[in-house]
Task: structure prediction
Amino acid sequence: MFRRRPQTVALVALAWGLGCGGSRSDFIGGRAQDVCDAQWPVCSRVAGCILGEESYTAGRFPGQGRIIVQLAEPSTVRLRFYLEDVVAAGQETVVTFHEEGCRDRIRQVVSGRTAVESVERQGEFSREADLTGVGDHMVEFESDLQARYVMKVEVEPLRNR
Result:
């Protein structure tokens, strides 16, 4: 029969209670921060940065942002938000994924409560879309949440599904 030592059980419980995993640094990983204050032309507009698998950005809601994601092949693009210091859920959060050249778009609207509940359950809020074009894709996001955020992008080629 396996017998646990009380000290081991206490240490595991303490580590679990302190939140091993799910921290801001775990979310960021080895990525570098991009302050997203550049002027990249895309779709007759301007985006603040080009985000990929090696970078992230941070900011504050309420607010909005516009980034570029570059695709070499049709892929699922996922925006992941880690929220901190949430004061209010707001009414809605909108993420709009554009095909290259803005020839088409996928607009996703989520209530503020749904976004905050997702963060409470999963440690983050995310939205994704399958984009079929190759090249620069504009992604816009806007929320009236009251919180600080860290955002990163993940790209998974559709052929990997």
User: Anything to note?
Assistant: Confidence is low (pLDDT under 50) at residues 1-21. Residues 6-17 form the longest helix (12 residues).
